[in-house]
Automatic annotation (TrEMBL):
Lineage of the organism: Bacteria, Pseudomonadati, Bacteroidota, Chitinophagia, Chitinophagales
Record-given protein name: Transglycosylase SLT domain-containing protein
Record-linked Gene3D superfamilies: 1.10.530.10
Transglycosylase SLT domain segment(s): 96-199
Family: Belongs to the transglycosylase Slt family.
The species this protein was found in: Filimonas zeae
InterPro entries listed in its UniProt record: Lysozyme-like_dom_sf, Transglycosylase_SLT_dom_1
Pfam family, one: SLT
């Protein structure tokens, strides 16, 4: 827990986009077709592309800059850090914590076991002496400090993360409290009158605001997009409603439709709207052919995508270009939403 730490991870060249202290919670807007907007009614919301795990517009500028700065190092970390990530996945799962919370360790320490902050936080999870004492970890010099042990420190970090989630019920607030402390987050909630990070962030220290956005940025680099841990609690509820609506509204395909279509296995960060546009397929028709398309892909699973048979060769020839456009769309600010620079 890096209270006030000051090392070469504490700043990045880019925009923090702190937000407006006078901003209010944005209401979830509906488009009349069942889908709800994650980010209020200030943007057009396309039912054919319900925007699963879209990047909040208040984070776009910072995350884009962070990706440019860290992509090369994190790309290498995917390889040399695999052993540690596998360990994290196992222990986080044992403790009922989303495995994506491992990226908190990435931004805390860049997986450096011996990292010591100026505030006294140590190890890959940057645990403070008080946390070490609470979770029965030994402290001392060098390897005698159990905060430098990947296994022991991860179990301790899980206890802390679960405590914070019990307190706030919101993964972004967990990251904020892990960095800045429970008291600071509670104070920001009181002053802002909101539990929405994008509203209360203006009342948090700059370092803590950036820490949350670094976590989101790291998630985008490693996962190729957002996920449940990059949404606020309110955004999570909207996301679940959208998925339930999408899954519940699908119609069973007739034998006639099935005989006129072909299937290809795809994986990665594909967008239904981009594929439909590239192949000139009606977006609603694509959704009917491929129920739960983006949900399953977002979970890292392959999807047996169904297309009109006459479109299959066109998809295969454009596959790489379509995927690149889908990835670009993930990072693009929502339509009609200006990016405000701090």
């Amino acid at each position: 827990m890096s209270f006030g730490y000051d090392n070469n991870l504490s700043g990045i060249a880019g925009n923090d986009n702190e937000g407006d202290k006078n901003s209010k919670d944005s209401a979830a807007a509906t488009n009349g077709k069942g889908f709800k907007s994650l980010f209020g009614d200030k943007q057009d919301y396309d039912a054919a592309n319900p925007g699963f795990f879209r990047l909040n517009p208040k984070a776009v500028a910072f995350v884009e800059s962070y990706i440019k700065q860290e992509s090369e190092e994190f790309g290498k970390m995917k390889e040399w850090g695999k052993t540690y990530f596998d360990l994290y996945d196992r222990i986080l799962t044992e403790n009922n914590i989303p495995v994506e919370m491992k990226y908190l360790s990435v931004i805390e320490s860049h997986l450096r076991r011996t990292l010591i902050s100026s505030a006294g936080a140590v190890g890959p999870w940057q645990l403070m002496p008080d946390e070490a004492k609470r979770y029965k970890l030994k402290t001392g010099r060098g390897t005698n400090d159990e905060r430098t042990d990947f296994t022991k420190s991860t179990y301790a970090a899980c206890k802390l993360i679960n405590e914070l989630y019990t307190e706030f019920g919101d993964w972004l607030l967990v990251v904020a409290a892990y960095n800045g402390g429970v008291g600071r987050v509670k104070q920001a909630i009181r002053k802002s009158g909101s539990r929405d990070f994008w509203v209360l962030q203006s009342y948090l220290p700059e370092q803590t605001r950036k820490h949350v956005k670094k976590f989101i940025g790291a998630h985008y680099i490693f996962e190729g997009g957002g996920g449940w841990t990059t949404l606020t609690a309110a955004e999570t509820l909207i996301q679940k409603d959208n998925i339930a609506y999408l899954m519940g509204s699908q119609q069973k395909l007739s034998d006639t439709v099935l005989s006129a279509t072909s299937v290809i296995s795809v994986s990665g960060k594909y967008s239904a709207s981009v594929i439909a546009k590239a192949l000139t397929i009606d977006p609603t028709e694509f959704k009917k052919l491929n129920p739960g398309f983006e949900k399953k892909l977002s979970q890292g699973e392959a999807y047996e995508m169904r297309l009109p048979s006459e479109k299959m060769d066109e998809f295969k020839s454009k596959k790489k270009a379509i995927l690149q456009e889908c990835i670009d769309l993930l990072l693009a600010p929502p339509a009609n939403t200006p990016v405000v620079k701090a």
